[in-house]
Write a structure and sequence with these properties.
Order of helices and strands: HHHEHHEEHH
CATH topology of one domain: Arc Repressor Mutant, subunit A
Strand order of the largest sheet: 1-3-2
Structural class: mainly alpha
CATH class of one domain: Mainly Alpha
Number of helices: 7
CATH superfamily of one domain: Winged helix-like DNA-binding domain superfamily/Winged helix DNA-binding domain
Largest sheet: 3 strands, antiparallel
Strand content: 5-15%
CATH architecture of one domain: Orthogonal Bundle
Number of strands: 3
Radius of gyration: 22 Å
Helix content: 55-70%
């Protein structure tokens, strides 16, 4: 006589309906999921999100002070120094004393930094395209527009003057 024991099916763990009805909850949950995927890909390139952010900021202008970079990224200035050190060791940025104020340093992106930024942009675009694949191009545009509106309302660092392009070079 053969006795079979069936393993009961595991219940599907779902998020509470009440939470799924909350746009804020969904935004946070999706944000964490996207961040996790993006960070994993950027880390495979040997960088972290702040490295990418520093290079992107520097690519928009010729030179920035360490203080303005720290403020834009909302990073403690002492943490920024370590980030800049690692980028400088790879010859992706250059730091020099500010001729107008010898107490501070100005930072600029190097040619190698620009090439590496292009690679990181490609990685980020790929992650975003995969993540947003369920949406049509029109839906993506609408979604981005709504996110930008919210970001500008809640974080002044996301707002730009009409003459400044938020698209990469």
């Amino acid at each position: 006589m053969k006795v079979t024991t069936e393993i009961p099916a595991r219940p599907i763990h779902r998020v509470a309906k009440e939470l799924v009805k909350s746009s804020g909850f969904l935004l946070a949950r999706l944000g964490l999921a996207f961040k996790s995927k993006a960070l994993a890909q950027i880390e495979q390139e040997g960088f972290d999100a702040h490295h990418y952010s520093v290079l992107a900021i520097l690519a928009e202008g010729s030179r920035e002070t360490q203080a303005t970079i720290a403020d834009a990224l909302d990073v403690d200035p002492s943490r920024l120094v370590a980030l800049l050190d690692s980028l400088e060791e790879r010859d992706l940025i250059a730091r020099q004393r500010d001729p107008q104020d010898r107490r501070r340093h100005v930072v600029s992106i190097t040619a190698d930094g620009k090439r590496q930024l292009q690679r990181l942009r490609s990685v980020a675009r790929q992650v975003e395209d995969e993540f947003l694949a369920p949406l049509t191009p029109e839906q993506r545009e609408t979604f981005h527009s709504l996110l930008l509106q919210l970001a500008c309302a809640h974080d002044p660092r996301c707002g730009f003057a009409p003459t400044v392009s938020s698209k990469p070079d």
